[in-house]
Amino acid sequence: MPEFNVWAVLVAAVSSFVLGGLWYSPVLFGKAWQRETGLSDETLAGGNMALIFGLAFVLSLAAAFVFALFLGPRPSLELGVGAGASAGLFWVASSFGINYLFERKSLKLFAINAGYHTLQFTLIGLVLALWPGPAAA
Questions:
Q1: Quick check: pTM over 0.85?
Q2: Is residue 15 domain-resident?
């Protein structure tokens, strides 16, 4: 198993999760995102929020873990941030873009979601690059 830092992965996942909470809140893009998706406050409140947030965190943890494996044990700041921004923009956002074109989703919704994932992976890469060497292998 390749070397990785458990604590760096955990902090990267928490950072990603917190960024998502802020990004999709009314403080930033929450209301615009709701309008573009057609989700009302009532619809959003009706879900199993513990399950939704719990699974969202598990997925953030999985993304941070696999990105740590991708970057290797001691990525430079340039590699962490550059690979993070590239992964978010050119892997995730471009994949969303393909789907959104066929699904006829709006450019505004694409910008909100693609922007989040670009910053998400940039932040994960930043955390992984700034953290000292692996604590676990």
A1: yes
A2: yes
